[in-house]
Amino acid sequence: MIASVGVLGGGAWGTALALTAARAGRKVTLWARNIAVANSVRQRHENPKHLPGILLDPPFGATAHLAEVVGADALLIAVPAQTLRSVATAAGRLVVPGTPVVVCAKGLERGSAKRMSEVLAEAAPKVTVAVLSGPGFAMDVARGLPTAVTIASADEAVADALSEALAGPSFRPYAATDVVGVEIGGAVKNVLAIAAGIVAGQKLGASAHAALIARGFAELRRLAEAMGARPETLMGLSGLGDLVLTASSPQSRNFSYGLSLGEGGARAGALVEGIETALVTRELAGKLGVEMPIVDAVAGVLSAKLTIPQAIAALMSRPLKRED
């Protein structure tokens, strides 16, 4: 039984997941690298930097010391994709062997093109690896709005135990074993959300937005299946569900970033996981021989090799083909 949960990452998503675990009746401790965030969560039961206006009720513990968290029955790692390896390496030195560790980041590692579960397995080889993904914004989860996600592990019993440990009246996890499908769905949808934001920023219309989602999903599915994912996983929460949410709302940092690009805005801003993932996905697709023209176009715009009008023209001038 999972009675205690440690959450690594004091951002919006990590704090929301810690609150979810506390609502599910678990004993929770949150690790935040920023000591001011840890103190605020522990002493005032709030994280105004990342979840303004949310009272963390029921309250839970928080610390800036990793050793005070890693003894929990299960760990959730909710740090940015490109920092996962360093955090997992540090935690892996301290964690009890066999502890279930759930990666809650969505992306592919720069340089290696590895999935987050692969990064965790390398950095902390003693742990039992799982992943959490699906359509959920941190603020919605923190507010207790109905949310459903997928928790996947190669060990079916572990996925079931983690789902039961985190389930609550407004948070419904579905257990799965298709780790590859869950991860690729969560990673690539961020790239497609940038594309959807560009479409909105360029005022290309609802028809173009719908086409982008449909054809983008076809690309996501081709890549995932080439990597061994099951088609039914991609049609679920962590594939199509997450794409529809992220590619349709300004709450998504990726969509908002694309929107700013489409409107001619600045490229700098908050953490946008889809930027790195776009470049890595293009590289990975090339190695696997998978055609991903929308991802290629986004990567071209992000690397300043294409202007947005050039990217749109290239997509619209592709040879006609059958959809099936």
Structural description of this entry:
The protein is an alpha/beta fold. The protein folds into 2 domains: 4-177, Rossmann fold; 187-316, N-(1-d-carboxylethyl)-l-norvaline Dehydrogenase, domain 2 (Orthogonal Bundle). 49% of the residues lie in helices and 12% in strands. It contains 14 helices and 8 strands. It has helices at residues 12-23, 35-44, 84-92, 116-123, 138-142, 156-166, 179-201, 206-226, 231-234, 237-246, 253-262, 273-288, 293-302, 308-316; strands at residues 4-8, 27-31, 61-63, 74-77, 100-103, 128-133, 147-152, 171-176. The protein has an 8-stranded mixed beta sheet, sandwiched between helices. Helix 7 (179-201) runs antiparallel to helix 8, helix 7 runs parallel beside helix 11 and helix 7 crosses helix 12. It is globular. The chain starts with a strand and ends in an 8-residue tail after the last helix. The mean pLDDT is 96.
Give the arrangement of secondary structure elements.
Elements: E1 4-8, H1 12-23, E2 27-31, H2 35-44, E3 61-63, E4 74-77, H3 84-92, E5 100-103, H4 116-123, E6 128-133, H5 138-142, E7 147-152, H6 156-166, E8 171-176, H7 179-201, H8 206-226, H9 231-234, H10 237-246, H11 253-262, H12 273-288, H13 293-302, H14 308-316
Parallel strand pairs: 1-2, 1-4, 2-3, 4-5, 5-6, 7-8
Antiparallel strand pairs: 6-7
Helix pairs in contact: 3-4, 7-8, 7-10, 7-11, 7-12, 8-10, 12-13, 13-14
The gist of it:
Helix content is about 50%, strand content about 10%. The chain is an alpha/beta fold and about 325 residues long.
